[in-house]
Amino acid sequence: MDCTLFIPHLLPPRELGEALWRAVDAPQLKAMLARASMRNDTAVDTEAWLCQHFGIARQQDWPLAPLLARGANLAAASGYWLCATPVHLETRRNALVLADPASLTITPEESTAFAATLGEHLREESVTLHAPKPNHWFLRGDTTPALTTTHLATVIGRDVRPFLPKGADSARWHRILTEMQMLLHSHPFNDAREARGQLPVNSVWLWGGGTLPPTVPAPAPFGTVWSGDATIRALAHHGGCAIEDVPARISTDNLKNTSHFFSLESLESHLRRGDVQAWSDAVTALERDWFSPLCDALQSGAVNTLTIISHSDVSLCQFVIQRWDQYKFWRKNRYL
């Protein structure tokens, strides 16, 4: 049996890395990574790696929007789709910074009102807005524009201007975005949010554009995918994988298929907020519930290969640990 762990932000930023990594109480994890075979790829980001491993080809963007739209029970089989995540843009000196959308806590009532206003305007552009969830909106058009976008996760906490849509049709979409921002700026629900001390929803972020990809040929890339992440579940569904919720602790006794993909997202929010102590505590919890049991499973032969995927601030890192690698005490991973 083979296991893949996808763990965003397991590797701390380089400016914090050495001291923070040394302080973390996770001896089994450190030993496994030190003796693993490692690939460090600066040319591949998380979005690309996930799509490639689930058999999705790039269009102009990695076409996540139609997959996520179908996962939200929208009829995504035809047309061009864009994720249109409601966001707050904050002016900071010479930058226009995108705040973490998770901090907005948009209510269903607000989402319906915003979507109605924007949707009425977008009909003039032959674009339909769908808002199946307060924090997940989509745009659909009948034709595919010449447009490339940047994944939402790449832009959070950064100046958005270098990441705005590009391509031959970008001028039109910049105009559409500006008009949507003007409508949101004057919306009474945003006035009410500001009166309550909440951040207004003053823009949307467009990303993941494309048409629904063709069905992934058998066999499925993984036997079972365990994840609570909407993107990964949409990719797994398209790839024909069985999908399960992530358990609190791994138990290899209950794993029936030959290959398993686990998405563990507990670390991501801590580093994004700059809370290094919470990040360290969460890694220690993963050591107890995941890394230590998997180390035992490697030693017993219950797991043949363990692959850990994460990313630093500059690259995507893949660590592959075979059963006998644990006994190669002389091997030291220079990256760590």
Strand content: 15-25%
Secondary-structure content class: alpha/beta
Q: Calculate the mean pLDDT score and round it.
A: 90
Unreliable stretches covering 5 or more consecutive residues? none
Count of runs of 4 or more consecutive helical residues: 11
SSE string, helices as H and strands as E? EHHEHHEEEHEEHHHEEHEEHHEE
Helix content: 25-40%
In brief, what are we looking at here?
With 336 residues, the chain is of the alpha/beta class. It is 35% helix and 21% strand.
Structure write-up:
- The protein is α/β, with parallel strands linked by helices and 336 residues long.
- The protein has two domains: 2-57 and 216-327, Alkaline Phosphatase, subunit A, CATH 3.40.720.10; 64-210, no CATH class.
- It is 35% helix and 21% strand.
- It has eleven helices and 13 strands.
- It has helices at residues 14-23, 27-34, 46-53, 64-71, 108-122, 152-155, 170-185, 188-195, 230-238, 268-273, 276-300; strands spanning 2-6, 37-41, 80-87, 89-92, 95-98, 127-133, 136-141, 203-210, 224-226, 242-244, 259-263, 305-311, 316-322.
- The strands form three sheets. A seven-stranded mixed sheet has the order 2-13-12-1-11-9-10, with helices on one face.
- Strand 12 and strand 13 (316-322) form a beta hairpin.
- The longest helix is centred in the C-terminal third of the chain and has 25 residues, at 276-300.
- It starts with a strand and ends in a 14-residue tail after the last strand.
